[in-house]
């Protein structure tokens, strides 16, 4: 009863806790999942925009460098060539070189070309730029007096300017300076639309991804909410709630696992109720008998002796019943068995000698196995004696009871066969359950004997078999492995 109360109270506490926190907790999980996804997606979007912008800026800088080097290379090539009008070398005619170059070359967008002769501005490209660099005194003073090439940058009212200044030499003297300059900030303005476009696409992906994340979170947490609703419906009297399982993914397996847990809980509760009802009934009968006998106990010595005999007999029966219950409870403990090496042949002879004292029957050893097994000798003897006593209780003096054993294929088989009335087919499935009794076989008792046999057999990692037919008798066979598996190591 205490075990049932503890289990029910635990389930009730779990139900209360679930009722208090289910909605908020599930909502919190959904929000946390969504927030985490949105955060990751937002960081990825921002990172992608930064990467795209960085790549575009790098390409702009590379293009500016290429433009500056190309213009300077063309200027050098022209200065070492011939005048297109006369076909003769320029030979120091620096103004003519600048005239021809500016006539032939069209500056790129946001590019300015300037020339200096004798330390003063000479010609410039006709391109439209936001700021006249040839009117900047500091830049003019810097460029006009250069005697070697210079790659640099300068600030202007129109933003940052990248330039390459190339002096032209004749007889070791500087005759002129050619400068090609690019307004970098104007080039970067072309990058901004691409950056904003990438940001817009990222924002769109963020919105769509957030919506999908919400749907996915809802899809994932939906079965969890079903589990919560099913848990709310669990009580000590109703464990029928189940979750509809669809598909074969992790969520479906979660629902199936929860349903299997409910099946086990329902079976455990039903078994517990049945056990308590049957145990109460079994104990109530001797208690009633003892109470009735003591209430009418008189002073006559013979009557008192007879009454005490009845009371002691009922107390012995209660003691055996309680001991059987304790044995079934201990059968689940790891120290239930004391394993040793057992000779099956010697064990069979001992079982036969002990069984012959259970009653006048035609006892016989049907077969004796040869071999050794690892088992608890006392527990196996207890199980076989229970089978022999069970057979003796339900047979007559003319019936035969045979005990046999066999060792083969890694298993040991020990059996008890009788020629009694047999067990009906519809009772054979339940005779090993606690408190189970045959309906038409005439077998009586507390209904724990065969349960004890089954518990001992399963503790040895074995199985018990039953072959029976009405009017032909029954054969109970215990099948045990020759060696017991090693217990798992505790890490």
Summarize the structure.
The chain is of the alpha+beta class. Helix content is 53%, strand content 18%.
Q: What report would you give on this structure?
A:
This protein has helices spanning 2-79, 94-104, 137-144, 184-232, 250-295, 301-330, 344-355, 377-393, 449-459, and strands at 111-117, 120-124, 150-156, 159-170, 173-183, 340-343, 362-367, 372-375, 400-408, 411-418, 463-469, 473-481. With 491 residues, the chain is α+β, with helices and mostly antiparallel strands. Among the domains are: 87-186, PAS domain (Beta-Lactamase), CATH 3.30.450; 250-330, Helix Hairpins (Orthogonal Bundle), CATH 1.10.287; 340-481, Histidine kinase-like ATPase, C-terminal domain (Heat Shock Protein 90). The strands form three sheets. A five-stranded antiparallel β-sheet has the order 2-1-5-4-3. The chain starts with a helix and ends in a 10-residue tail after the last strand. 22% of the residues are buried.
